[in-house]
Amino acid sequence: MVGPGDDAGVFRHKDTLMVETVDVITPIVDDPYEFGAICAANSVSDVFAMGGTPLTALAILGYASCDFGPAVIRRLLKGATEKLREAGACLMGGHSIEDEQFKFGFAVSGVVDKNSILKAGGARPGDTLVLTKKLGTGILTSAVKLKKMKEPALKPVIASMMSLNKIASRAAVASGARGATDVTGFGLLGHALNMAASSNADLVLQYDTVPFMKQVREFITAGVIPKGAKNNLAFVQKRTKFSKSLGDEDRLALADPQTSGGLLIALPPKGLKKFDSIAGREKMPYWIIGEVVKGRGRIRVE
Ligand code: CO
Ligand code: CO
Questions:
Q1: Cα 3 to ligand 2 centroid, rounded to whole Å
Q2: Which protein residues have their CB within 5 A of the ion that is ligand 2?
Q3: Distances (CA, A) of 159 to 6, 79, 119
Q4: Alpha-carbon distance 176 to 178, whole Å?
Q5: CA 8 / ligand 2 centre spacing (Å)
Q6: In this predicted model, what pLDDT tens digit does every residue of 169-214 receive, in sequence order?
Q7: Average pLDDT for residues 98-121, to the nearest whole number?
Q8: Nearest ligand to the CA atom of 190
Q9: This prediction's pTM
Q10: What confidence score (pLDDT) does residue 36 get?
C-alpha cells in the first residue's frame, strides 16, 4: 500500500496492514546504553511516522570484537531493549557481523489501522505544520566530537534523541492528520521538501518559529557545520526560496541532519485543539512552524 520513498512500507496481508522499516546508524554518543536507546528510538520512529504501532524488532550490529568487549555490547542491548519495550515492541533476535566501523540499528515491524496511515504525501493546502522536537543534534554532536563542547552539555540533546515519537504519532492520528514524516538525516528542509513534493503542495516555514536547541547558532557561527548539513542545503536549494533576511547560518541550521528527530506533521486546522489537549496532557512539547499552501512541491522560508 505504501512503497519506497516514505518513512516505512505498508503491506496488506488479509485484514492486517503491516508496517516495515530498517535503520542503522554509527555512534554519536560515547555511552553504549544511551547509544542503544537512541538507535531503538530512531528505528521505531519510522513506524510512528506512518501512524503505526511497532510490534517486533530485529537488531543489526556491526563491530570489531577485539575493540569492544561483551560488557559494552550488553549495555548497548540493555539500552535498546528498554527503549523498545517503552515503544511497545519486542526484540526478537538479530544478527551481528565483524566490522571495522561500529554500527547498530533495527529492522522494525508493526501494524497500522487503514484510517490512521500518515504519509509524507498526505499534506493538504490549509494544513498547519507542527514539529515535535527541537533541531540541532547534528551540529551539537559534532561540537562534542571536535572537543568544542563538553559531553555533559549534551545531556538535553541525548534526552531528546532518546525520546520516542509515540505520543506525537498518536496525537497526530487522533487529530485527523493525514501527512507526517520524521525529521532525520536530510534535516528539516530535506524532509519538508519530500513532504511538499510527494503531497504536490508547497510548504511555507516561518523561520522565527522553528525551535533550535541551545548553542546551535553559536556553533554554526564558530564553523561547526556537519558535512551533512551542507549536502542537505545544496540538495534542497533549487526548490527552496529563502527570505533575503536569512543568511547562510540560518539556512544551514535548518538543514542540520538529525538523529532521532521529531515528527513533522501536517495537521488540518480543526485538529489543532485536539492535538494541543493531548500534547498538554502528555507534557509533549510542539511548535507550529508554518503551513501547507497550494503549489508544486517547493519550500518557502520566511
Ligand atoms: Co523517516
Ligand atoms: Co528511516
A1: 13
A2: 23, 46
A3: 26, 13, 27
A4: 6
A5: 7
A6: 999 999 999 999 999 999 999 999 999 999 999 999 999 999 999 9
A7: 97
A8: 1
A9: 0.96
A10: 98
